[in-house]
Amino acid sequence: MRAQRIQGLVFCATALAVAASAELVQRLDPQTELVAMAILIVILGVPHGVLDTVFARNLYNVRTAKEWVGFTVVYFIPAALVVALWQFAPQLFLAGFLVISIVHFSGDPSPGTPVFSRVFYGGAIIVLPTIFYAPEVTQLFSFLVGPDAAMQTVAALLYLKWPWLVGLVLAAIARMQSDWLSGLEIAALGLIATLAPPLVAFTVFFCIMHSARHILRTMNYFDQISLSRIVFTAATPMLVTVILSVAAWNSFGDTAIDVRVSQLVFVGLAALTVPHMAIVERVRLSGWIRKS
To answer: Are 52 and 75 in contact (CB under 8 A)?
Structure first.
């Protein structure tokens, strides 16, 4: 728990610094910013998902080569279905992606956080950027699903932005009464999601909060599994992910690079989030408390 609290403080400090400097530091050009943030997401964010192999081995007793092949096939079937949904029903894909992201991110706060607070926390990084950066959010969504679906989705988020901000502030205040750091994490997320450019805010949140906390909780859940063991276990699935990413990149043809990067990162995240949640949600719902 001490490591998680330190990680929470690091996130809060980073989020506050990035939010405070949003108007003071000159931004990179949009394409460079997109590529830079995508690289950070792949290097620092995606690896937490490949730890699903740790859960498969320890919770589902996947051991033999045959069992690993079966696990891999079952894992990638829903991922492939998500990609198919993106191809044939892009607006439904985007709506579904945003909803499951809210549900998934709501697992970040510490145990004891009310459902009310978790919902506003989980949706903050999705809804609040539309307060000051609605055109950028629309542009990013249009890279994924086209301009019409993007504008309709952002229009819906605009109706939610102020109620969501109020709800998040109340959630932070309420949580500070029992756990000041957890309340500060909620407040820090609200600040960076509102004030920082959307891609920068998402990258800081996804890498320094969501991914880092999942890795620390995994280490603690499996009896302080070592970092070296985690790296070894994650190496093979990470390599597979890289190979699939390269293949997907080459399949885009002459598509503009910013569209390619956006689709590769965010459609990829959507596809992998579904099987990832299927594996880890029961652990999250248990409060990361392992039954003896």
So the answer is: yes
